[in-house]
Amino acid sequence: MLTIVLAAVSTYIIDEAENAADFWALRYKLNDKTYRRVINLIGSYSYFIVYMQFPSIIVLLMCVLIYRYGLHLSYFNDHLKRMEFYLKTEEYIDILKHYDVIEENLHFLKTTLSTPLFIALLHSYFNLYSALSVVLNGKIMIYMFVELGCNVFTGIVLLTLLTIYSSKIPNYMKKIKNTVGFLINKHEQSNLRNEKEIRILKRMEQKEIMYLSACGMIDFKKSFLLTAFGTLLTYGLLIVNLAPKSESLVF
Predict the structure, then answer these.
(1) Residue of higher predicted confidence among 86 and 131
(2) Which of 73, 157, 170, 214 could be bridged to 117 by S-S, CB 3.0 to 4.6 A?
(3) Which residues cross the membrane (predicted)?
(4) What is the pTM of this model?
């Protein structure tokens, strides 16, 4: 529904721009104003579907998947907090095996989402860079406002969602390590002989924190968001200033 509204608004704004319809019609000249409106509507709708709706749906699905995996870690951490202090060694082994299964699933998630996260990240960067380059060129046609607004909004929202949800996985794992460390301290302070239980808990505590990554090149952490926008602004300004200035912007 939103894409239809955006396409209609975009068509209304660019109604007076004759060359806009030529772009969607592959430079074919349309003299009839009604035909130009129809072509502009279809072209704008297709554009918003491909560049805004589809990527947004894919990113939202990835966020839901990451969120579901994060819930497993959260439930496991809550279980450790509610766990009775005096358990049998076999029960500690079962807890370790359960955590190993969760860790294997996280490895599978990391491998599966590596390329999609990279593509989604590039899409967000390209959206923001295209808007930045047009704005810095200083010649913005009125019919480009809707497109630029959607590019900026989509780029910021998708990049923010990816960073926030992906960074939840290592945060949950850090909480589990803290909880396990607390249990180890309780065992070490007790007067019972529980060396086996302590060794099992230390194996859990020594496990590495896992970060979701984009093709192994970028790890998603909370601090990545500021780094991403800072890098985009810095290198975006550099590239735009080095590029030759165009005389005019053609739709």
Answers:
(1) 131
(2) 214
(3) 44-67, 117-136, 142-165, 224-243
(4) 0.79
